[in-house]
Amino acid sequence: MRKxxxxxxxxxxxxxxxxxxxEEKSASAKSLAEQKKEIKPEIILKSADDHPPxxxxxxxxxxxxxxxEEKSGGRIKMRVYHSAQLGSEKETIEQxxxxxxxxxxxxxxxxxxxxxxxxxxxxxxxxxxEEHLHRVLDGKIGKKLLEDLEPYGLVGLGYYDAGARSFYxxxxxxYKPEDLKGLKIRVQKSQIMIDMVRALxxxxxxxxxxxVYTALQTGVIDGAxxxxxxxxxxxxxxVAKYYSLDKHCWSPxxxxxSKKTWExxxxxxxxxxxxxxxxxxxxxxxxxxxxxxxxxxxxxxAGVKINQIKEITAFQKAVEPVYEKYLKDxxxxxxxxxxxxxxxxxx
Length: 347
Ligand code: GTR
Prior knowledge:
The protein is of the alpha/beta class. It has two domains: 43-162 and 251-296, Bacterial extracellular solute-binding protein, family 7 (D-Maltodextrin-Binding Protein, domain 2, 3-Layer(aba) Sandwich), CATH 3.40.190; 165-250 and 304-345, D-Maltodextrin-Binding Protein, domain 2. 50% of the residues lie in helices and 17% in strands. The strands form three sheets. It has a five-stranded mixed sheet, with helices on both faces. A four-stranded mixed sheet has the order 8-5-9-11. The mean pLDDT is 93. Residues 50, 57, 89, 106-107, 162, 188, 209, 226-227, 230, 253 line the site of beta-D-galactopyranuronic acid.
């Protein structure tokens, strides 16, 4: 009998102890939930990119998202919809103007359809190298081109690197403009790119980025043009193995924020978003350098036929009609002159 009651006491103590523990547990769970409630985001931003998550531009957006979340103490959250989940560039630009997308990372070529002065960044053979481009982008011209986006419902937050674009195709290496004759070359939905490819003697075919692989594979097009990382990540090299380094343009990427969303934000939040965008630009440019090298190496390992072009003057001559067309606009003429002068200073 005695033994039993001792056992009972021990069991009772254990029971009380475990109840206490579970009370503590639920109390701490409660405080976690409360904590979570406290940092529940007040602002959720939707951002878009047409590249996969490990591409430098998308990485730039992830960096920006982390920066915003940390600096706002969890109040601002930015979701990254990569791989063209929200649509192709032309559609996402429109959605950004309507406010359905808050931040959009796109290439400037399709943006030239909206804001005309942006054309200067797409002009063929205008930029000498990356340094020339950076001087322009990071100086007063780059700033002005971003400001020019405002009447179109877009707030330009900065530029990401995209290197130089060159031609690739499934038939032959290109050494001179005549080699492009008769080739159907896919271009972005951008009039300046159509004009340039036509001036060089090929047949321009505007098409969404996501459709290019199949179009190359089925022979709907013969080639396209892009930088090394895009050519590599899309695996276009599998179906178009000749890459000819003419570096016809240095069109950078741009971060477009929806003016509709912008107007709803406080001054302090706008400042923080600008700061986060700037930090992401620095990060992306660093990544870009690494990815460009890595992509080129992997393309060479995969047996892609990469050729240099010694005689670039024939290409420059062939695109003169493009200059004639766009220089008619005095604003564009002035900007191009300024860009050329910046290039000359570098010599
Ligand atoms: C890439 C750019 C993409 C897209 C693509 C294209 O260089 O990063 O956003 O514009 O070119 O050719 O459509």
